[in-house]
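Example A, followed by Example B.
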Amino acid sequence: MVTDQHADESDAPETETEPREECGVFGVWAKGEEVAKLTYYGLYALQHRGQEAAGISVSDGRQIVVFKDLGLVSQVFDEQTLSSLRGHVAVGHCRYSTTGSTTWENAQPTFRTTAIGSGLTLGHNGNLVNTAELLDRARAAGVPTNNGATTDSDLVCGLLAAAAADRGIEQAALDLLPQVRGAFCLVFADEATLYAARDPHGVRPLVLGRLERGWVVASETAALDIVGATFVREVEPGELLAIDDDGLRSSRFANPEPKGCLFEYVYLARPDTTIAGRSVHATRVDIGRRLAEESPAEADLVIPVPESGTPAAIGYAQGSEIPYGSGLVKNAYVGRTFIQPSQTIRQLGIRLKLNPLKDVIRGKRLVVVDDSIVRGNTQRALVRMLREAGAVEVHVRIASPPVRWPCFYGIDFASRAELVANGLDLDGIRRSIGADTLGYVSLDGLVAASEQPRSRLCMACFDGKYPIALPDEAQIGKHLLEGLEKGVAGPAAPVVRAGYGAEDALQRP
């Protein structure tokens, strides 16, 4: 048995209420490069997309080795581990769970073997809506369960591995992917080839980059920048890419019906990322300007809720001609923690992340710009904290419309019953959070700031119009695959312990 280093798998009680995206994916095919280290830095750039677990698989053309664990990228990997992961094909993943619990088995990349003994490793960003249907298909095909994994990602990997024995992975993917419904960006690999696929709606971003001696695919352009790759283009909705010794080839498994996630521009993506040709930072500044026009306020200072509220606050200050200032200090080292806080610390809540600059705030009428309101707990605590620091008035401005519907395509929002905007009108929300005034940017204003056609955007969390049909409530949910009857465990990839080389890889039972 491998005695991997494990973080404590118990989750700390949630003190944050912002939405969380499922994952970041990264893949590289490059000979003569340290692909594990390139992947490490690519995941580092994508850390904001998932902070529960991280993993990298590497192939040298003969075998695939996977190293993964719970925790941040910098906690899971060290120099010695990365140096032991040698090869020219790598798949990387950082996870926030929307399907399956936070366990080692559900960390990615996931691994399966085919009937002919070759390996397949896969990382997934998104969330499927026909998981139950795919499970029935897997059972009918005799696809075994995989060491306790309970994710839609592992299910897809198992189906691909099963079909690849007869048709090869590329043809198996072209046959399977039209049957997969939901939001998905997949990066997967066998011993010699890197693959990438994006769902026909292109809900989540996925981009292609060029290295001097290879290719890179990643969730965001910021990850290309950090590894020195040149942006080539987005992976198209409904497209499958394959990269090997023969170069790059593209296939279509579905006709594109673009519905890119509008919330990527609001909160999910890094500000230094570009989506559909539009800078995320420029979009957020423009949202702030429109917000100032739509919801003006008489105030002395505009301050952001860092970091995601900063560009919109800059835009609000520009549009309103109210001075911009930094009134809140963010602890840059607070991520998802596995340490249980004491009751005293839990009651402090938001102060774990933010603390007011009292000298800046005292005696001021403030406009406070945040990216979104989900349950309202964060804003309620923030308004109270600012008043205690001496603010005379607190005017809250939100750089997105009210979130009234949950996301089933890869964002971990609260349930609809928990969404504050679902049960209260604007004044009710204002009173709930204790603000003097409250204003949201309009949906029209947000769409205009994105510079994307409304017809090419998914706005379901704002307008309740889901572009990909949803199944019955009983066939969807984070823990759908858990508690089902167990099958026969599938073979595991070699898993390297920290400090051991690939030649010492052991089998995890």
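Example B, a separate protein, is given below in the same form.
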Amino acid sequence: MFSAVLIDKGESGTKAELTTVDDARLPEGDVEIDVAWSTLNYKDALAITGASPVVRKFPMVPGIDLAGTITTSSHARWSAGDKVVLNGWGVGETHWGGLAQRARLNGDWLIPLPSEFTERQAMAIGTAGYTAALCVDALVNHGLTPDGGEVLVTGATGGVGSVAIALLTKAGYAVTAATGKADEHAYLKQLGATTVVDRAEFADKGKPLQKERWAGVVDTAGSFTLANACAQTRYGGAVAACGLAQGMDFPASVAPFILRGVSLLGVDSVMAPQEKRLGAWARLARDLDPAVLDSIAREIALGAAIEAAGGFIAGTVRGRIIVDVNA
């Protein structure tokens, strides 16, 4: 038996509760894991609150991230005692996820826990930080260099934004952070942002082409924010899009792409191939100061995860929430 957050669906909709589950109910997989830490991400909050139809199969244990130790394995790459990390792969949507003390998974979905991080630190990074690293990798691989100009990060106080600022700063880029939280400017500058702007500048419909400001962008918002960011990107610049906090729509024109040669780089963290995952975690191991994790993460027990999910929907969460599934 183990403790888990379990989401089920009834006539009145979905409901999440902390409960005790028999090991026999674990889904199929060739690796079993004692989970040490998990996280809460925006997608987890959507699943737990039912604010969006994230869960595709009921009942479901949410949690798109986990870190723990393998207890049994029939997978060629893994053995009992190996410490591993999981991000994405539909876990928490179609396969039971990390907000539980036990997991049974496909071993192909796992990567080794980087030696530079503890399990707790790896979850302070989580999918949010791993996605931020994918975005930075995408911009760097596109050819963005620190001397090319400012990089804009939207949704800057969130998990993706916070880690993106820290990684970009470490790599030598000048970062402008966009936020609607006036009381978080000191936090963002502590992470390395040189300038902080109001997200309201990007939140409404703007001109198809605007003043060139950004050499690169990491966008977590979508909708008008992404459209305006593209319209303000310099000739030959690039925008890494990874989120939809403002909306899934993209009310833009082709002008930035055909008149300024701007590139829109889609960043997917869920099904990213192993090579990209390992590259992103290598960047995190190299460029992310573990001390930064202390400033962006707060810890809760498994039983508090359901209530904490509401903060994401309300937009009040700063940084990362990590979950001690054994507390």
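On Example B: The CA atoms of residues 116 and 286 lie 9 Å apart.
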